[in-house]
Amino acid sequence: MASAESSHVSQSCSEEGQDFIPSKLGTKEYWDDAYMRELQTYKDIGDVGEIWFGEGSMNRVIKWMEKQNIPENAAILDIGTGNGVFLVELAKHGFTNLTGIDYSSASIELTRNILEEEGLITIKVQEQDFLNLSTDFKDFDVCIDKGTFDAISLNPEGRDVAKLQYVTSLRAVLKPQGQFVITSCNWTKEQLLQIFSPGFELLQELPTPSFQFGGIIGNSVMALVFKRLS
């Protein structure tokens, strides 16, 4: 099935490296509608939908986590969990302290259905807007974002404020020295460094597929690991 997510990725990625044109892809209403459709499709035929950035994006992050010996009981937050498939993969690789959040109630219902089908009902999922989190959301060892910051960047209203609030929320939920992994197709490495430099230090750039055009080699997807400073 060509889900909402697969088309959203190609559309949002088309603005790479620019001051993005506002888009409905950055609105809550759009994602509520998209996940309502995916939820109905799941109920009808059991299709969980597409994986944001593909399976390679999940494998890339999990491989890094295992190489870094991230403890299996580390508190991990999936920011903008979507259909929750990444939570399922993390659980399959032995991670036990998992939380997923999304501001779409349909996304959370879809995730809960998928987790129940997989027998993973101990994974915590909550309807939460990352830009307006409840105060008890904190002390995570690892936070992971695959596309949520991209969507925020396309919001037609207040996106500059939203980007600043995202960084503030990230500092609030992540432990000092905690690690943040972001996968983006909208932002270059230099732009992400500038956005997250207040309070965060770049640890590593994860390898992603590259392309060559006109003798210039580039990456269509950027994956970076940051550490929260004290």
From TrEMBL:
It comes from the Eukaryota. Its main location: cytoplasm. The keyword Membrane does not apply. Keywords: Cytoplasm, Methyltransferase, Nucleus, S-adenosyl-L-methionine, Transferase. SUPFAM superfamilies: S-adenosyl-L-methionine-dependent methyltransferases. Its EC number is 2.1.1.-. One of its GO terms (molecular function) is protein-lysine N-methyltransferase activity. GO terms for biological process: methylation. It catalyses: L-lysyl-[protein] + 3 S-adenosyl-L-methionine = N(6),N(6),N(6)-trimethyl-L-lysyl-[protein] + 3 S-adenosyl-L-homocysteine + 3 H(+). Pfam families: Methyltransf_31. It is found in: Cytoplasm; Nucleus. Residues 72-202 form the Methyltransferase domain. The keyword Isomerase does not apply. GO terms for cellular component: cytoplasm; nucleus. Protein-lysine methyltransferase that selectively catalyzes the trimethylation of EEF1A at 'Lys-318'. HAMAP family: Methyltr_EFM4. Belongs to the class I-like SAM-binding methyltransferase superfamily. EFM4 family. This is EEF1A lysine methyltransferase 2. The lineage of its organism: Eukaryota, Metazoa, Chordata, Craniata, Vertebrata.
